[in-house]
């Protein structure tokens, strides 16, 4: 017979983690009443969870009854970033790409069999791309960054991940047939960069280029995300800039030195 106490503890833990995430996304504006309504948690339970998180240092109480993340949560975030976040050198290359294009720019890393969004910088005219945020790993078949990396993996690895698996449509433009997806990866491999033409988010197009470690294996990708109409006008130039960022990163990983190509300095 199931242990009722264990089930209760797990449910309480789940609600506590959900509450902590809601506090973090509210940027210091959340009150107990707001959190209670948003998460459909009884106000008494909400206060109990908040008191527990206060006691452990995962949240702090601000003036006006507002809550924000505390030092324990911030410490956990730093540890996670150290494990899966980009190196300062790769982050600097992302900044260069962002400064040159003024568009929303992303850096993703190939980590434990999936491509994880590690860092991004919003453009001057930022576009909203669903729930895409740091740590995102979903819908690999629909994202330019993922296709840029997958194209350079052994065929059997790609088959193991996608053959016989439903490729869910994210938009009406998403590739959902495995054979078409494999053909798309072959095209990416040939041209050296990947496109997402409104496949992940309606009205938004992306271009991504992979970078490689010293062994020649794909290590991650740089991406820019642009409204589809503006992307059509700037596609060639944006592709050049993304590929330059990837080239600089590949050089860094192969030599240990962060060097901007001579042609890029001219």
TrEMBL record:
This is IclR family transcriptional regulator. It comes from Nonomuraea guangzhouensis. The keyword Glycoprotein does not apply. SMART domains: HTH_ICLR. Keywords: DNA-binding. It comes from the Bacteria. InterPro entries: HTH_MetabolicPath_Reg (IPR050707), Tscrpt_reg_IclR_C (IPR014757), Tscrpt_reg_IclR_N (IPR005471). Residues 72-266 form the IclR-ED domain. It holds the Pfam family IclR_C. The keyword Methyltransferase does not apply. Residues 10-71 form the HTH iclR-type domain.
